[in-house]
What does this fold into?
Amino acid sequence: MPGSTSRTDEMEIVNPNTGMSRYKLNADGLRLGEEGQPVTQILGLDLSLNHTGWCFCECAAPGAMNFGVHNLEKSPLDEIGKMHFLVEWLKPMLRPGLLVMIEGFAFHAQGKAVLQLAGLQYLVRHQLFQSGTPFRLIAPSQAKKFLTGKHNADKNVILKEVFKRYRIDVDDDNIADAINMSRIGQALIGLIALENQAQREVVEELAAGKARTKPKRTSKASSLHANRPLEGGRLVQQSAMEPQS
It folds into this structure.
C-alpha cells in the first residue's frame, strides 16, 4: 500500500532489562500477531480451585494495579463447577493486548489437590490458546527468587516482601502471589527496572524460555517437567476491560 510503513520500528523497541525487543521477546512465546499490537495489559494469576488470586494492570500505568481473590472454598459448587466459574470469569478479559502471567505447578505437592489444580491449569491454558492470548508460566521457585532473592520462602515472607518491595499491603498470600506475577510480567517487557541480580537472572531465564533450577534429585520423570511457554502466542488489538472481584 502506498505510504505504508514497516512494523519493524515497533517490534525493535528495546527492553532495557534483557537487551531484546521489548515486545517480541523470543521465538516461543510473546510473538506479535499480524497487526503488530504490543502488550498493553498484564494479568497475574495464582490459580487455585478454592483461592484464585489475580492482579491486573494497564501497561500505561503499571503502578496502578487492581487485585483480588476468588474465595470458593465454601461455595456450593463442586470442583467442575468451580473450574467453570473461573474460566467464565476469565473469558471477558481475554482481549488482544493482554499478557497473562501464571504461577506454575509446585511439583512437590501431593494428593487430590494436585489433580484439581492440573485440571484448572490446563482448562485456563486451553482458553488462552483458543483466544490467542499469550501467557508465560512462572515456576514457584522463580517467583520467590524474583521477590525475595531465594528459591524458597513461606507465606509470611511473601506477604512481607510484597509490602516491602511493592508498597502494597495485603493479608492474602494468593493475592500477594498474583501481584508478584504481574510485576514479573512488567519486568519481562521492560516496564520496570530490575533491582538486583536475582531479578535479572529470573528475567533472563524467562526471556530465554527456560528455568534455571537445582533439583534435589534427578529422575526420568522430573526431566519431563520443563517450564516451556506456549508456542505461537499472538497479540492484536487493545482492550480496556478489567477483572471484577
